[in-house]
Design a protein that fits this description.
mainly alpha, 2 helices
C-alpha cells in the first residue's frame, strides 16, 4: 500500500469512530486510525529521497 491508502483508511476509521457512542468498538476504530496514520508517516519516511543509512 502507499501512504495515501493508509491516510485514507485512517480518515475512514476516524470518521466512523466519531459517529459512534463511546464503546470498545469505537476505541478499537480510534486505535486503527492511529495505526494507519503511523503507517502512512513511516511509508513516507521510508520512501523519502533524503533517507540515508544510519552511521
Amino acid at each position: 500500500m502507499n501512504p495515501a491508502d493508509y491516510a485514507r483508511m485512517a480518515e475512514e476509521c476516524s470518521r466512523q469512530a466519531d459517529a459512534m457512542r463511546p464503546s470498545r468498538e469505537r476505541d478499537a476504530l480510534m486505535e486503527k486510525a492511529r495505526q494507519y496514520a503511523s503507517y502512512a508517516k513511516m511509508e513516507n519516511w521510508v520512501a523519502s529521497k533524503e533517507l540515508e543509512p544510519p552511521n
